[in-house]
Each structure stands twice: as structure tokens, then as C-alpha cells.
UniProtKB/TrEMBL annotation:
<dbReference type="GO" id="GO:0022857">
    <property type="term" value="F:transmembrane transporter activity"/>
</dbReference>
<keyword id="KW-1133">Transmembrane helix</keyword>
<dbReference type="InterPro" id="IPR005829">
    <property type="entry name" value="Sugar_transporter_CS"/>
</dbReference>
<keyword id="KW-0472">Membrane</keyword>
<dbReference type="InterPro" id="IPR020846">
    <property type="entry name" value="MFS_dom"/>
</dbReference>
<dbReference type="Pfam" id="PF07690">
    <property type="entry name" value="MFS_1"/>
</dbReference>
<feature type="domain" description="Major facilitator superfamily (MFS) profile">
    <location>
        <begin position="9"/>
        <end position="398"/>
    </location>
</feature>
<protein>
    <submittedName>
        <fullName>MFS transporter</fullName>
    </submittedName>
</protein>
<comment type="similarity">
    <text>Belongs to the major facilitator superfamily. TCR/Tet family.</text>
</comment>
<dbReference type="InterPro" id="IPR050189">
    <property type="entry name" value="MFS_Efflux_Transporters"/>
</dbReference>
<keyword id="KW-1003">Cell membrane</keyword>
<dbReference type="InterPro" id="IPR001958">
    <property type="entry name" value="Tet-R_TetA/multi-R_MdtG-like"/>
</dbReference>
<dbReference type="InterPro" id="IPR011701">
    <property type="entry name" value="MFS"/>
</dbReference>
<dbReference type="GO" id="GO:0005886">
    <property type="term" value="C:plasma membrane"/>
</dbReference>
<dbReference type="InterPro" id="IPR036259">
    <property type="entry name" value="MFS_trans_sf"/>
</dbReference>
<keyword id="KW-0813">Transport</keyword>
<keyword id="KW-0812">Transmembrane</keyword>
């Protein structure tokens, strides 16, 4: 009975990354239309994604600290409400103001504040809910799948909504947030935890510093890979959204459907990866190398062959590579950190992912202005860098190799 209840908790929790992803990614296919409606440049319109991410980057560590001190749910629910308010502000400005760009950005700032304390807290909460590593891996696989499912649905939903009114996607952010608030509030049962020792900020900072002193190399490696993945993913989505419209004359729902194809591959592969990796740290490393290797190869192939059908095929391969990698990164970092510091440490990981989200669109806007080929060189090059980082710095402890049930996590060179 308790297992069934935990599954319901997990499904409710999965609504958070789903909703947060929808609230951001469904704007990507609409960005060219927003640019036309507001009379702003590609770089300016990319700031609608970037300011959201920058605010989240700054506040995620604070949210992680608070979730360790006052509880995951106490942070998550208010932040979901703030995210909804931010969407409403952007929607109102687009509807009522003659020059709404600045207020849209203010709304996106609020949404970033809310996002900082919502989606990133999901990872440590999954770790709190389960005791066995294979259950944690499967749970993280499901939440990562919800995240990627949001990416699959978002271009379609965004395009459909914008086909009625260009600013309608902003108004659906509070709607989606309200649904997630209800699910989290009524269905998620936070596990009973031992009484926490009250720590000063100085004591807490010292403990976190000690965690990095012991585990720093492999943690920084995972931070870097998470950042690279999101940089490539959101950068290439921004590029595709623009290219499909300008080169292939695909707009609206048709463009959304094409954008959804590689993201669907990402979502399915993420779910399968989370189910299969269990607690095998060596397998996690191998899958990560293979995944980022596939991403590297796909961009080399796109550089060689530009036909539309091959473009879609190779981006599907990119989606699969990213999809199998993400649950491995989530599992390594969650299972490798003690519960009392899990929220804080995973918040740094989430912040690094948001750095990738923030940097991707404006960076790719610049690459597009220089050369289309530069996009493929950069994407393939930094994906290969991720492969090297995994191979050089993520080395499971020999005790975890000899004993699959060992709690000893990766020690890095």
C-alpha cells in the first residue's frame, strides 16, 4: 500500500519539472513571432529565456539551503505560486501595454524566482522518498522523463496557443502552476526526518565546503556536463526554431511538431535509462560516455549532410544521447551525497544546468550571425569535451565495483 502511495507521490512530484519546463520551453517556438510583434532583435528576444535562467541561477543555491533547513515542500509550494504570478505579469503586459518588453522581462524574473525553488528541489526530494539506490534511480528517471516530456509538449502547446494570440502562452503559465500547486500540496507526503540540529550559516557553509573537499572533482565534473547538455539543447532548439521558419517555411503547429520529434526521443530514452541503470555506478559512467558520444557524432554528421530528413534523424540521435545521460547524472549526484546536504549540493547542479539554459539561446544567436557551420563545430566540440570529462574524472570507487550494494560513490581523479 505504501509503495502505491509513493508512486502517487512521485507522479504528483513529476508535475513540477513538467510544469516548469512547459512554462519556459513552450516560449521557444514563439520567440520569432514575439520578435516580430514587439519589433525587437533575435538577441533581445532571447533574453526572455535568459533573464529567467539567470535569476534562477542566483537563487537556486539559496532555495537548496532552505529546503535542507525548513523542508522541501515548504519551499516548493510558495515558489510554484510565485512562478504563476510571473507568468500572469508577462501575459498582462503583452495584452494591455503598447511597449510591453520590459514588463515581460520583469514577469520572467518573477518566474525565475519561482522556478529556483520548485524544479531543483525535486531531485533531493526523490532521494528523501526512497531508501534503495535502484528506487532512487528509477524515481529520478521518471522526474527527468517528466522534464523532457514537458520539452516534447512545449513546442506543440506553445505553437497552438500562439496561433490564437501570440501572448497566450504567458497566460497558461499560472494555469499550469496552479495545477502543480494542488498536486504537490495534497498528494506529496514528505518523509519523516530525524530532528535536525540547528546550524549557523557559518557551520553549514563549513560542512558544505567539507563535502566539496572530499567529493569536489567528481561533483564539478557532473556540474560541467549538466551545463554543457543544457547549453547545447536550448541553443540548438533556439537555432532550429529560427531555421525551420526561415529556411523551410515551417510555422505554427507544424514547426512545433518538428521540434517535438527529437525531444520525444529524449523523453523515451530518459525513462528507459532511469529504469535500467539501477545502482550500478560503472554502468552510469558507460551510459554517459555513450550518450555524449552519440551527441558528438550527430553534430559531425549534420555538418556533413544538411538535407532536412537527415537533420531530423541526427537530432533524434542527439535527443537519445542526452536522454540516456541525464538520469545517470541525477542518480550519481543524488546517491553520492548525504541527505542533510543533498538539497544544497543538488541545487548547485541545477544552477549549472540553468547556466546552460541561459547561455544557450544568446550564444547560438551569435553563432548564427557568424556561420551556420560554427553551430555544428561548437556543439560537437563541447559534447566531445563532456565525453573526456566523464572518462577522466568520474571513476567509481573500487569498493563500489566489487560490491554493487556499496554506498561508496565515485571518487574522481
Amino acid at each position: 500500500m505504501r509503495e502505491a502511495s509513493k508512486k502517487l507521490d512521485l507522479l504528483a512530484l513529476s508535475s513540477v519539472p513538467l510544469v516548469m519546463t512547459l512554462g519556459n520551453s513552450m516560449l521557444i517556438p514563439v520567440l520569432p513571432l514575439i520578435s516580430k510583434k514587439l519589433g525587437i532583435s533575435s538577441f533581445q528576444v532571447s533574453l526572455i529565456i535568459t533573464v529567467y535562467s539567470i535569476v534562477a541561477i542566483l537563487l537556486i543555491p539559496i532555495a537548496g539551503y532552505l529546503s535542507d533547513r525548513i523542508g522541501r515542500k515548504m519551499v516548493m509550494v510558495p515558489c510554484l505560486i510565485i512562478a504563476g504570478i510571473g507568468g500572469a505579469v508577462s501575459g498582462w503586459a503583452s495584452w494591455k501595454m503598447d511597449d510591453p518588453f520590459l514588463v515581460i522581462l520583469i514577469g520572467r524574473v518573477l518566474q525565475g524566482v519561482g522556478s529556483a525553488g520548485a524544479a531543483p528541489v525535486v531531485i533531493p526530494l526523490v532521494g528523501d522518498m526512497f531508501k534503495k539506490d535502484e528506487q532512487i534511480s528509477a524515481g529520478l528517471g521518471l522526474t527527468e522523463t517528466a522534464n523532457t516530456a514537458g520539452k516534447v509538449l512545449s513546442p506543440i502547446i506553445g505553437a497552438v496557443l500562439a496561433s490564437f494570440l501570440w501572448f497566450l502562452p504567458f497566460w497558461f503559465i499560472p494555469f499550469f502552476s496552479a495545477i502543480s500547486v494542488l498536486l504537490v500540496f495534497f498528494f506529496i507526503k514528505v518523509p519523516n526526518q530525524k530532528e535536525k540540529k540547528n546550524q549557523s550559516i557559518k557551520e553549514f557553509a563549513t560542512n558544505v565546503r567539507d563535502v566539496f573537499k572530499v567529493n569536489g572533482k567528481w561533483l564539478f565534473a557532473i556540474f560541467a556536463i549538466g551545463c554543457i547538455i543544457m547549453f547545447v539543447l536550448f541553443g540548438i532548439l533556439f537555432y532550429l526554431s529560427d531555421m525551420l521558419e526561415k529556411v523551410y517555411n515551417l510555422q505554427g503547429v507544424k514547426k512545433g511538431l518538428v521540434l517535438a520529434i527529437p525531444l520525444l526521443a529524449l523523453s523515451i530514452s530518459s525513462y528507459i535509462s532511469g529504469k535500467k541503470i539501477g545502482q550500478n555506478k560503472n554502468l552510469m559512467k558507460t551510459v554517459t560516455v555513450i550518450g555524449m558520444g552519440l551527441v558528438t557524432i550527430s553534430f559531425i554528421a549534420i555538418r556533413i549532410q544538411h538535407l532536412f530528413i537527415y537533420l531530423v534523424l541526427f537530432l533524434i540521435i542527439t535527443g537519445i544521447g542526452i536522454g540516456v545521460t541525464l538520469p545517470c547524472l541525477d542518480a550519481i549526484i543524488t546517491e553520492g551525497i548525504e541527505k542533510e546536504h543533498r538539497g544544497t549540493i543538488t541545487s548547485f547542479y541545477s544552477a549549472m544546468r540553468f547556466i546552460g539554459v541561459a547561455a544557450g539561446p544568446p550564444a547560438y544567436a551569435y553563432f548564427m550571425s557568424v556561420s551556420e557551420h560554427l553551430i555544428y563545430y561548437i556543439s560537437g566540440g563541447i559534447s566531445f569535451l563532456a565525453v573526456l570529462i566523464v572518462m577522466l574524472f568520474i571513476k567509481p570507487d573500487k569498493r563500489s565495483q566489487d560490491d554493487p550494494n556499496s554506498k561508496h560513490m565515485p571518487k574522481l581523479a
